[in-house]
Fold these 3 entries.
Entry 1:
Amino acid sequence: MKRTPPNAKVVPCKGCGQLIFFALTPLGKLMPLDVSSLVYEVASGENDRVPTLRIRDNAWISHYRTCTKASQFSRSGSSSPAVATEGPCPPSTSTPAS
């Protein structure tokens, strides 16, 4: 299981029961984040034809993206940004390949 920030309180989601924790957005709002979701980053590999992946530390998936009951909690009915990061590294804006 991925580690959460030291001051994070892990709780079950009131909608689906998945383990989550909350973090403040840059606008000071709480965002639920999945505890166990991994975020991958494409890294350059030895072989230029095949990129390699690595797990991105201090990055979590917004629980609004994975919760089956997210619409119950979203005021606008839309989803939040997909990834939240801790520290100076901004979230990746690239879309994962299908």
Note: The chain has a mean pLDDT of 76.
Entry 2:
Amino acid sequence: MTLDEHTSIEAALSRLASAGAVGAVVSDGGGRVVGSVSHDALRRVPKDERTAPVSTVTARVALDAGQTLEQGMQLLTEAGTDMAPVVDGDGRIALVTYRGIMRAYRAAARASSRPT
């Protein structure tokens, strides 16, 4: 799911709930990916402030599909977020979580330790 950075926090919460999503990619008015926002970050905003745009709580970090799992974990840690969009060279977007990166890392470690 992608939200425009001008979408209100209230509207974003509604869309995430309807989709059963834990987060969304955030894009600018031109469709360029600027980061992500989690359901938890949106919920922490006081109810009387939820007319503000999601840009106020957007984690402004995006990963490149060519980065390693280690680089992805480091960038998420440095940004203080647990999710980020990954954009490939063709402009395709996926939302990954720190937990998902850890699962992939463990799977790769197990695969590399198996005898061939």
Note: The mean pLDDT is 91.
Entry 3:
Amino acid sequence: MHEAVAAEIDCDVRVALAFLIGFLVLVLLNTVGVFNWISGLAGFDVGSGLGSLSGWTMLGALAGVGLSTNLGLIRKTGIKPLFVGIAVTASVAVASLLLIDLLGPAST
């Protein structure tokens, strides 16, 4: 049993590492202007298309999470984790608003 859990964790770590490396590569490509260059060659805004694709993939991921939610397990776990999630979300929102107020909105 422990080997199966270790294998699953190892798989999760590999997926997270692949995501992180892919994200950093895309950030680097965007920073050096590769997407603008490709947009010029393709005749349409590649960055906008990738942004739209990003939104749709996020929607798919959230739908997957929602569809795999086990309401019985949530009921069994209790309401305390729900309050922790709400508190974390509120903390991130307050910190974000404070930083925007202190530093100003991002310039485009």
Note: The radius of gyration is 20 Å.
